[in-house]
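Session log. Operator J.P. requested a structure for one protein chain; no other inputs attached. Running the standard single-chain path with token output.
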Amino acid sequence: MEVSDPRMLGGVVADELVATAQFVKEDKGEVNICLSGGQTPLEAYRLLTLEPRKSEFPWDAVNFFIGDERWAPTNPELLNFSAINENLFSKIPTINYFAWQGKDENEARENFEKSLFQKNIHLNGFDILMLGLGEDGHIASLFPGSAILNDFESLTAISWDNKLKINRLTIAPKLIFNAKRIFVCIKGSSKAEIAKRLFLDDCSVTELPAKLIFKVSCPITFFMDHSAAKFIQHLIQV
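Structure written below.
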């Protein structure tokens, strides 16, 4: 668990992305990274495009995937793609990325799964999977009570965003379980209560989907600021 000053957290995540991507490239030549939205990841992506990290990151070996997306083609300000593109994709001319694209949700899901097969992610998983934590305990676009949480065969799914009243496209639990490394970013006092529940409460995945994280076998790194971690300080190794 990495706990940092909130002003430094994006840089900590960016440095870990650089180091891990370099390691994976040296090990197998190609790096598949699944991105999340959110304030801290976006800051990390922005910092990747600035020196010295820009020169250190192995852009030529990396494929980026957007892990989940709101289906809101007429409202681009709601899209993870718009924010990630502004902070990352548009800054690197040679960048290789895969987003959710299609005339409707089903076609977008089908096209995204084709890209997963193209890069053998259906077999090998993501080398780095980035996740955030919603205030209701959701990860990716896997929400409390969703039947998708019990689907361990599908690669992707269409979920319902009850707050915005729109569909979302998302990676399914299988791709979380198959990841080689998971980075979880949790920032701000508004996330302190759900972080406490994640680490301390004995609740089900149906109640708190982020509990899926603790069922995986790969290394997990939590990146948090002090506000988000205020109820779990005793778990942090000094």
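Operator note: The chain has one domain: 2-232.
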